[in-house]
Amino acid sequence: MRGDYQQLVDEISAALGAPATLEDRDFGLIAFGAHEGEDDEVMDPVRTRSILQRRSSAAVRAWFEAFGIARARTPLRIPPDPAAGVFRGRICLPVRHRSIVHGYVWVLDDGRLSDLALGGHGAPPDPRITQAMETAARIGALLADEARTGSELGDLLHELLTSGPSGRPAAATALRDALRDTLRFTPGVPLTLVAVVPWEPTDTGTAPLPNLPGLLAACPLRTAGRPRGAAAGHALAALVRLRSTGALTPARTVAEHLLRSPRAGAAPAANDHLPQPRTAISGHLGPPHPAAGIGIGTRELTDLPDTWREALDAARAARAEPRLGPVAQWDAIGSYRLLTALPATGPDPAIGPLLAPSHAELARTAEVFLDCAGQAGRTAQELGIHRQTLYYRLGRVEKLTGLDLDDGGHRLLLHMALKAARLQALQDPRLRQQ
């Protein structure tokens, strides 16, 4: 189908005699026409970024949407704005099907299209514009069909991931048959799931999947209840085909691409009106960032709910611990494999005083000290402080908590409590403080 898009974009380029680019409604690149010419300004920064990164930035998206392209039913002329990186004007052809916008065709104006009649206000459009809009309508029908297929597969994936153990065999069979019929999927090939947290669902159904190797289906899932008491929100589950169960490169590619989507990290959770977490352990992290997790590969569709929990836990760990992300594999998140599986509870009474915002420096020092296996030299270097300053801070930690940092059990309790506090600060609205 992607070859069809390229052919149709080339038809528009030929009809208007100018380079054309097709993007989905989230400004993800689908196809682009060849651009002839030696003028460096022909390839303005916006078009260059779109082609090289296969996506426009959020700022570029907002700039173009300010012209009303999401509501337009006829072509729009977009003027150049060098300050925004738009060196050449554009004609935007909205790609619609049955009143729903599915994308945009952008035609660069190299000076020859400035006087082209676009129609509107009762004036007839130039025949070349009419031809281009007819082609855009054909693109809209293809995108709508692709969206329906993606929605059906996404619904089946959603059913499998949310069904109980007794319902898994039937749900797995339905998904397997749909994948085989629509994508020529061969049962038994290795699969995994990618979780992107947070994710903003579309308001008109499932958008067409990005053209990425191995991406088979995707669906948004509510994350409320994992852990219990966590703030409500959504994550995206993406089903990815692998070359082998241990070769997760296709999943990482999918995860990195999805994290660049404007829907990643844009979802306003139920408690987003509250201040961001500012406990002692999380205060140095800054605002929570979107992250992705990858589960262990499997050949059994009935194993996917367990794989989903692994992917979601890996994404939560990557949000809590930036050094793990922005994309984390479940088998590489260390102690978070245990911590993310535990129910949400308050901090241990001994650790509670250390988590006060006023003790952020002490909590950070204790965490780095334990991450460095209690090696004072490494810890001091990591924190950029003198050893004597380190010893002074650790002494204050012991006095504040009543724990003995020479005792292995006490160290384990403190270390796990600090890591658990990271997860809680990002997920539990009760820990969001001024």
Q: Which radius of gyration do the C-alpha atoms yield?
A: 26 Å
Shape designation? globular
What separation lies between the terminal Cα atoms? Answer: 51 Å
Q: Give the ordered list of helices and strands.
A: HEEHHEEEHHEEEHEHEHHHHH
- Biggest sheet overview: 5 strands, antiparallel
Whole-number average pLDDT? 82
Q: Tell me how many strands there are.
A: 10
> Beta fraction of the residues?
5-15%
User: What helical percentage do the residues reach?
Assistant: 25-40%
Report strand order across the widest sheet: 2-1-5-4-3
pLDDT < 50 stretches = 225-231, 267-280, 282-286, 428-434
What is the structural class?
alpha+beta
Number of helices: 12
How would you concisely characterize the structure shown here?
The protein has helices at 2-16, 45-53, 58-65, 127-162, 168-183, 249-259, 304-320, 336-339, 360-371, 376-383, 387-401, 408-427; strands at 20-24, 29-32, 76-78, 90-97, 100-108, 191-197, 215-222, 234-241, 291-294, 327-329. With 434 residues, the chain is of the alpha+beta class.
Keywords:
434 residues; alpha+beta; five-stranded antiparallel sheet; five-stranded mixed sheet; globular; disordered C terminus
Describe the protein's architecture and organization:
The protein has 434 residues and is α+β, with helices and mostly antiparallel strands. Helices cover 39% and strands 14% of the residues. The protein is built from 12 helices and 10 strands. It has helices spanning 2-16, 45-53, 58-65, 127-162, 168-183, 249-259, 304-320, 336-339, 360-371, 376-383, 387-401, 408-427, and strands at residues 20-24, 29-32, 76-78, 90-97, 100-108, 191-197, 215-222, 234-241, 291-294, 327-329. The strands form 2 sheets. The protein has a 5-stranded antiparallel beta sheet, sandwiched between helices. Strands 7-8-6-9-10 form a 5-stranded mixed beta sheet. Helix 7 (304-320) links the parallel strand 9 (291-294) and strand 10 (327-329). Helix 7 crosses helix 12 and helix 10 packs across helix 11 (387-401). The longest helix is centred in the first third of the chain and has 36 residues, at 127-162. It is globular, with a radius of gyration of 26 Å. The model is unreliable at 225-231, 267-280, 282-286 and 428-434 (pLDDT under 50).
